[in-house]
Amino acid sequence: MTTTTGARILIIDDEPQIRKLLQVSLQAHHFDIHTAATGEDGVYQASIIHPDLIVLDLGLPDISGMEVLRRVREWSRIPVIVLTAKDREDDKIAALDSGADDYVTKPFGMGELLARIRVALRHAAKSADEPVLQFGRLMIDLAQRVVELDGNRVKLTPTEYDLLKVLASSAGKVITQRQLLQQVWGGHHHETDSHYLRIYIGHLRKKLEEDPTRPVFIETEPGIGYRFLLQD
After folding, report:
1. I need a surface site. Which of 140, 141, 189, 229 has the fewest CB within 10 A?
2. Domain residue ranges of the chain, discontinuous segments joined by +
């Protein structure tokens, strides 16, 4: 099982300063760091060293970061955190829809990146098939389709349950609106159907959150989607 201490991380970024900063900072937190300056080298190293996590810049000099992500996803579910420009919301959505686990916007703080790395590694370690998911006060029994909060049964509609299951099964990851619509409502939907999503997220928050306006389980990623938060 992957643990955060000593995890092998591959950094794919063409900026020497960024690679050096990440290497020094992450090694100080006892990660085993490997680096690549091009997309082709990154794909090659990923296939050779089998990292526990990849930090991937989308703007690379040879092939795009999206192409690197697509190639890696052909054979591996390695957690991938992409680095994106702050104003490129479309890039974030495209990367998440293509299999990225999370994103950090440039310029970024090391504290935020470290937190994202820890969450991605924890999710990867927990991603084995588990019939019961436990998140602090919340328990989800996938086999029985039972949800309990503080030991009390929570009554959910089939759609509410399916939505919660998709989010909780990928706890810590950002799930885009498109992904949620496809997984919960199937292929017969349009992007304009996102208002259904907001309505059902609102229903879930009313049933699960002490204060729906300050959620601790389901976090909104504005303009992109939602993230089910891992509970300490």
Report:
1. 141
2. 8-126, 132-228
Q: Which residues pair with 84 in a beta bridge?
A: 105
Judge whether 174 and 221 are in contact, CB under 8 Å: yes
* pLDDT exceeds 80 at position 193: no
Beta strands 80-85 and 8-12: pairing type? unpaired
What's the CA gap between 32 and 130, in Å, rounded? 29
Q: Which two tokens stand for residue 186?
A: 């199937």
Residues 6+ apart with CB under 8 A from 101: 79, 80, 81, 120, 123, 172, 173, 174
Topology of domain 132-228, CATH: Arc Repressor Mutant, subunit A (1.10.10)
Position 32 pLDDT exceeds 50: yes
Contact 69, 92 (CB under 8 A): no
Residue with tokens 């304009």: 192
Q: End-to-end distance of the chain based on CA atoms, in angstroms?
A: 19
Instruction: Tell me the pTM.
Output: 0.78
Count Cβ neighbours within 10 Å for each residue of 5-33 and write b for 16 or more, e otherwise. eebbbbbbbbeeebbeebbeebeeeebeb
Q: State the CATH architecture for 8-126.
A: 3-Layer(aba) Sandwich (3.40)
Token duo for residue 85: 């420009």
